[in-house]
Amino acid sequence: MEIYLFMSNGTVTINFTIGFGNNLFQYSMGRLIAEKNNLQLRHRAISEMGIKEQNAPVDRSLPTIVVDDSNYKKMFFMKNLQNHNVIIQGYYEDYKVCGPHLEKIRSWFDHPGITNKKDLILHLRLQNRLIQVSHNQNHISADSFKDAISNFDYENLHIVTDAEKWEEYTIGDIEKIRSEIQAGPNPPKNSPWVEPEQSLEYMNHLISGLSELNPVVHCNGEQVMKGTGALRGGFIDDFNLLRTFDQVIVHNSTFSWWAATLSGAKKVAIFNPWKIAKPAKMRRNLGETNYPGWFNWGSADDLYFKKYGIK
User: Fold this and answer.
1) What is the pTM of this model?
2) How far lies 244's CA from each of 90, 127, 286, in Å?
3) Three-point CA angle 289, 292, 298, nearest 5°
4) Quick check: 142 and 302 in contact, CB under 8 A?
5) How confident is the prediction along the chain (311 residues), in pLDDT tens digits per residue?
């Protein structure tokens, strides 16, 4: 028989998934619920952001509530979750949940501070986005990015990307990306691969179109980190670079969404459709984010596969 020698109001356990941006949503949801209800926290560290591991004990005599994508709104706004254990296991890509608590959330994380108020930075999340069918219908065309860029007054355009290089790609380069992701401990299981020729065409379309603007490009050539899906080593340097700019264009990626949200950038553009797959749209509204200084652009017609007839 197990004997528990402590009493508590309950513990929030955060089960982190793959994805740095996902983890920030999960941590924020868990901590907001914990602070609102005077609950303890249990989760691994997010050391890159100054978040230490918490190992609060779990009083298993208390009832447990699981908060996931299907019920998070109801659970978050419940008046009282005291004397319950709460398990966080969802994605929570909902700007409306974070919005009323922005200053509090920003105070939780280490921050480099905004130092560049003259230039504009665009984040391009590529890697598995190039090669998986589940992502290829969300490829934003170079022309659409240019439309967003035209709304800014800036001196220099910067692009930060997980691409290894900013020059013409070959089939071999695309196959290398696929092999790196497939070789990891958590290779994609339910998403088929895009034909390499299609991935190649889109990548070279982006490079050719955006190079016309003479950008300063920051490529991350480090190895893909095992167990992350497609995150490269040194990713926090890219994240922190984004957070030093006062003008940001957010790719449809939680990585850049969080960078702009935590920095408090003065002007932020975000692609409105975000994710066009219907199940994703049901719980993901980040393309509609309306925080101070944010605006959205584009429509589904601006996606590469629609503009250029790619299936």
Assistant:
1) 0.91
2) 29, 24, 21
3) 40
4) no
5) 444 445 578 999 999 998 899 999 999 999 999 999 999 999 999 999 999 999 999 999 999 999 999 899 888 777 688 899 999 999 999 999 999 999 999 999 999 999 999 999 999 999 888 888 877 778 899 999 999 999 999 999 999 999 999 999 999 999 988 888 777 655 656 668 888 999 999 999 999 999 999 999 999 878 877 766 677 888 999 999 999 999 999 988 999 999 999 999 999 999 998 865 444 444 579 999 999 999 999 988 888 877 776 65
